Amino acid sequence: MVFRRRTKRTAWEWVKASVYPQGGWLRAVRYILHRLTRLPDPPHRIARGIFVGAFVSFTPLFGVHILVAALLAYLVRGNIFAAILGTLVGNPITFPVIAVLSVQLGHMILGTGVDGVPAAQILTAFASAGAEIGSNFVALMMGGDIRWTNMRTFYVGLFKPYLIGGLVPGLVVATLCYHLSLPVITAYHRLRQKRRQDRAARRQGSVTQGHPVATPPDNKDGTA
């Protein structure tokens, strides 16, 4: 695999890297920008992928952000890898802000106003809902009792407001990411194209001045 690490990370290293990447967040951002500018796709498709990834990061679809972003990027003909990188808009630092803002805004839109929702409570509710889904799946396979007592409260009180409320800030942030990334990627692609043209011109100039570029021998035995 192209992106596989030589040394496999431990579980603790994965947790640590998700909170604070090796080399710091600045280096991580620079690496992401470097990868985005070197993607072999037109700038508008790359920017479209970034838009999709940033937007998906404002949805409560935890665990499947990457899958949803890749699918949407495919549907809108955006760059899939750029969409995956775009989901990094939602990270351990920004998720508490995104979650609280989306839930509160969702309750305002739906008219089910509630007081401020602590970020820890949101994370706990998602963890409890995931545990209930997992236990019900096991019960379905093993023939046990299936209970959805907490899912309705979770859906009405948290998931639905989060989903509705995340649309507005998600569209705003995704649009900003699109308009900020498009000119940068376009300029970088033009710079790379100009460098290629300059190298080709220098090689052509060497040939016309009587200094041809060395080529391998034509005959099979390699002699002149």
Which descriptors would you attach to this protein?
single chain; about 220 residues; mainly alpha; 9 helices
Can you tell me about this structure?
68% of the residues lie in helices and 0% in strands. It is elongated, with a radius of gyration of 25 Å. Helix 3 packs antiparallel against helix 4. The longest helix has 42 residues. It is mostly helical.
Which secondary structure elements does this structure contain, and how are they paired or packed?
Layout: H1 11-19, H2 24-37, H3 43-56, H4 65-75, H5 80-86, H6 95-110, H7 119-142, H8 151-165, H9 167-208
Helix pairs in contact: 3-4, 3-5, 3-9, 4-5, 6-8
Give the structure's gist in a few sentences.
With 224 residues, the protein is mostly helical.
Estimate nothing, just give the exact number of structural domains.
Answer: 1
H-E order = HHHHHHHHH
Structural classification: mainly alpha
Distance between the termini: 41 Å
* Average pLDDT number: 77
Care to count the β-strands? 0
Q: What Rg, in angstroms, do the CA atoms define? A: 25 Å
Approximate helicity band: 55-70%
Query: What is the 3D shape?
Result: elongated
User: What percent strand?
Assistant: under 5%
Unreliable residue stretches: 14-20
